[in-house]
Amino acid sequence: MRAQFILSETWTNLRRNLAMLLSLMLVTFISFLFIGASVLTQAQITKAKGDWYDKVEVVVWLCPDGTSQSANCASGKSPSAQEITDLQKTIRDELNDVVAKIDYVSKQDFYDNTFTKQYPNGEFQGRTLTADDMQDSLWLKLKDPTKYQVVAEVLSGKQGVEDVTDQRQIFDPVFAVLNRATAVTAVLAGVMVLVAILLTGTTIRMSAASRRTETEIMRYVGASNWTIRLPFILEGAIASLLGSVLSCLMLSVIVRVFITGWLAQSVTWIPYVNQLTVLMISPFLVLGAVLLSVIASTISLRRYLRA
């Protein structure tokens, strides 16, 4: 009988406060959509970092023929085959704990396999370049990609080495922008959550105030505080539940349409978040929304429903 009464009161509250229910549901929807977007953005960054950082290599650019600003290239000649072999031996001896693999890429190989793929016909900044304009290089696969600085310190001063670059430098600015976007989204989500909490408390408090006479009668006939409170708490929880479920559905649509259906088809070399990622974070979004609503409702009702 008590459960039936509580459910009946909850349904009555929902019908009486339909407008406020919809407003609370929409605020919850927007708030947790921002939170979900923030989490998905960070998941995308983590996924991309894990994939790219495992693939990136340190490139040791050897001195070219002709002029170079590097003091290691004062001779104006590219290293001989024996000098390159000696440099590889130095890397194996001094960086054995850091470097997992060494690949030598000649000027011709770099031109054929890399440069012309990025710049068809060798046209770069109005000039047509040939293999002779390229540089020999050593591509180092690291056991730990974070140990780039160790490699740079050892090789930067070696004769025949013009420059040492880490491919992660290409991606780090992109990650920095994405991290800032995540921070902005998180701040907006925090503001919206605060609005949702305040609106939840206000909505439930107004609902309780409008039925103050009924709750007083219930108290006089011996109803417990929780019997009186629970219909109002369930009202807010249901609104938050519906709003958070809508936010999860919207995140799923966004991922399906803009990520899986469009971006993943256009840019295929990046790993993307997918429906499984949305599915993994959805329970936390729904649970968080309901818990926040229950807490906000419980606190707001204390003023009206004290024993």
TrEMBL record:
Superkingdom, natural source: Bacteria
Subcellular compartments: Cell membrane
Gene3D superfamilies the UniProt entry points to: 3.30.70.3040
Transmembrane regions: 21-40, 183-204, 237-259, 279-301
InterPro entries linked: ABC3_permease_C (IPR003838), FtsX (IPR004513), FtsX_actino (IPR047929), FtsX_ECD (IPR040690)
Start and end residues of each FtsX extracellular domain: 56-164
GO terms for cellular component: plasma membrane
Membrane topology value: Multi-pass membrane protein
Gene Ontology terms describing biological process: cell division
Domain ABC3 transporter permease C-terminal: 187-303
Keyword Cell cycle: yes
Key words of the record: Cell cycle, Cell division, Cell membrane, Membrane, Transmembrane, Transmembrane helix
Role summary: Part of the ABC transporter FtsEX involved in cellular division.
Similarity section: Belongs to the ABC-4 integral membrane protein family. FtsX subfamily.
Subunit and partners: Forms a membrane-associated complex with FtsE.
Protein's name according to its UniProt entry: Cell division protein FtsX
